[in-house]
Every structure is written in C-alpha cells, then in structure tokens.
Amino acid sequence: MLFSGYTASSHHKRVGGGSNHLCLPEEPQLQARTGGSVHAGWLYGITYRTSGGTTAYHAKPAPCAVCYVPQRSAQLMIPASNSCSVGWTREYNGYLMSQYSWGVGTHSDYYHATTYICVDASPEIAVGPSDQNQGNIYFVRVGCGNLPCSKFTHGMNVPCVICTK
C-alpha cells in the first residue's frame, strides 16, 4: 500500500465536475487559493449509502487505499499532493482540473461530468483560435464536510502530481 485516505468526487446534487472517484491522501498538501473565476469543479468526500438492511456503514465516510504491485510498471496521479512516495519519480506537478460543477436546474443542460485530470503547473498552450467556448476545464476546489475541514480547507484549489515507477 502506497497510501490510504479519503474517497472523493463531485457533489451528488450537481452536474458537471469530475465523473471518477479519487483517493485523497490523509495528509493533503494543499496550496493557497489562486485568483480568477468563481467557476470551478468541486471535490467532496464520499459517504456510503447502504439502505436495505446494511446500516453499519450507512452515511459514514468511505476510505480508500492506493496500492502498487512491484512486478509491473506504473503511472499514478495523486490528487491533493505535490510529492511522490519514496522510490517513485515525479514527472510533473500541477492542479486538478475538470468540467465546471453546476447546481441542478438553470443551465444544468450545459454541463456534463468529465474525468479529473492533472494539468501541469506551467501548462503549454496549443496552436489554434482562442475563446471558442466549445469544451472547457476548470480548477477543482475542495469542499470540506465529509472531508475533514481541519485538513481540507474549503475552497482551496487541489494540487496534483504525476508519479512513475
């Protein structure tokens, strides 16, 4: 096991944002909030919903673990971190990005969930016209609550790192 932590993804009552679940480390390495647009993807802690007789886990936070099998080569994106585990190589670090997360209702038909991706802290810009507004990615911010607010400060941009071995 490389690390254990908190399972996180988009808010269940919003559209857009990220579609996949992530494993955030127990000790995040969050960075100061960057300026810019109020538009953002959001990341929240996940809880079990186990109605129908299995109540021991119902409404409790879901933990996670990231493991490595030494006989195989691997590439790993770690959200809420900017460093790799011992023995791993950091390829780059940056910020977690996804589609904009919007409350259900007005304009909700404009947004869909995308995969969370780690974008380099110094991104390059492709050749082509600007401001076509055909597909977009936004910084992902953390929402505390199910994620402990003492560790995951609400509204902080989520850093990430790409590690290989």
Characterization of this structure:
It is built from no helices and eleven strands. The mean pLDDT is 83. It has one domain (3-124, 134-164). With 165 residues, the chain is mostly beta strands. The relative contact order is 0.31. Strands 1, 3, 4, 5, 6, 7, 9, 10 and 11 form a nine-stranded mixed β-sheet that branches. The chain is globular and about 55 Å long. 0% of the residues lie in helices and 35% in strands. It has strands at residues 3-9, 14-16, 22-25, 41-45, 63-66, 75-79, 89-98, 101-103, 117-120, 138-143, 159-164.
Keywords:
165 residues, mainly beta, nine-stranded mixed beta sheet, 11 strands, globular
Q: How many domains? A: 1
Tell me the helix content: under 10%
- Average of the residue pLDDT scores: 83
Which value, in Å, is the CA radius of gyration? 17 Å
Low-confidence stretches: none
H/E element string? EEEEEEEEEEE
Which secondary-structure class do the elements indicate? mainly beta
SS strand fraction: 25-35%
Task: Tell me the major beta sheet.
Answer: 9 strands, mixed
* Gross morphology: globular
N/C terminus separation = 14 Å
Task: Tell me the number of helical segments per DSSP (H or I, 4 or more residues long).
Answer: 0
Total E-strand runs: 11
